[in-house]
């Protein structure tokens, strides 16, 4: 069964104190005004609204700032390369893509900031490799850990938009990195004997360190752990547990041989990470900066047309700005349209494929304005990533250990591929044309469509087995199927929830 069709996009939880039922579980009620579609907490009862305000303030804010800084530290290497590091460190071959791959292999907050600062002192691309490995090592667990955390606090009606906000904070970090490098080059180049690109790493590292303190103070326990977080009351802790029960999020179970075997033999363990792996490696690498810098080479490809260092850093930021707006729309639409995730995977694959074809086939220097427009629009189909991880959180609701494992596996294996493939298909020396890279992306977008369809088929098959009284071996026998335990439609007002999981037919 397609899980996105089984998750209600118009339901709300209401505590027993506001109803006449004797049930001690929250209830599910339909959205009744436009405000609930803009931000879901506006229609919740006061206790749930205040709880989610705290979770948004402490969890979502911390996560978003952290991912902003993570991407700031990740993308500063590209901006530094375009702003003098290439020449200072003799990086005329494929050293840039190699340094990115080494970062990914490493891929702890304090070490992350310190390692970023240390990047400012490198004197060769070999020492750059070592430092980038350490930066990646200290950042490695942040992204998958936050997605698992979001899946442990938010219901299907809430998680998509928050996962998107968290992820797009990273894109804003990418955006900010370009502007920061431009400012550093313009205002700090040569100050205290440091080149402008070196100042970028110093500033990024100093910004990162305070986040480590915030993490120690505000990072919460999970509702399923049974331990109350200091910034919640006892009543709020109980409410958070009940919310996850209604959403079908299982608590912790001890690891046994039977459980390990069940996870190992589940199709979830293989197909779900593959969706994210293919998506993560299938979107176009940022090539506009290389293209702009190529106008400044000798002999000039277009005599009389040159771009300054600030322009080379700033013009590609339009791509990120447009992408952020479109991706935010996807997050809200996904939550508002019955929690559907898969339509955005298909749409993103088709759009990205189109722009990769254009970038591969268009002449580099014949229609400068047209190619610039294609660069600016090229990422609008790349917003499915956080929705894929939200989908994994929902599909694996019935087993929290499986959920944590598959979210982490999807992220880590995606970076395994990313550590290797760019050295062959996205070589620095292939830019700005990068025809092999764009062809690679076209192939992966086709594969993404196929793998997503395979997941939908398996979900449909699991639901069909249960509907005829069978049992799905991929989930615990004591649980409902994790594709059908979610709210499946609008629940009439006053209907009580008498089990841990709500199952309602349209």
UniProtKB/TrEMBL annotation:
It is found in: Membrane. It is a multi-pass membrane protein. Keywords: Membrane, Transmembrane, Transmembrane helix, Transport. The keyword Nucleus does not apply. Gene3D superfamilies: MFS general substrate transporter like domains (1.20.1250.20). Residues 492-506 have a biased composition (Basic and acidic residues). The lineage of its organism: Eukaryota, Fungi, Dikarya, Ascomycota, Pezizomycotina. GO terms for molecular function: transmembrane transporter activity. Residues 1-11, 475-487 have a biased composition (Polar residues). Pfam families: MFS_1 (PF07690). The chain crosses the membrane at residues 51-69, 129-151, 163-185, 197-219, 315-332, 344-362, 374-392, 404-426, 438-457. This is Major facilitator superfamily domain-containing protein. GO terms for cellular component: membrane. It comes from Aspergillus bertholletiae. InterPro entries: MFS, MFS_trans_sf. Residues 1-28, 469-506 are annotated as: Disordered.
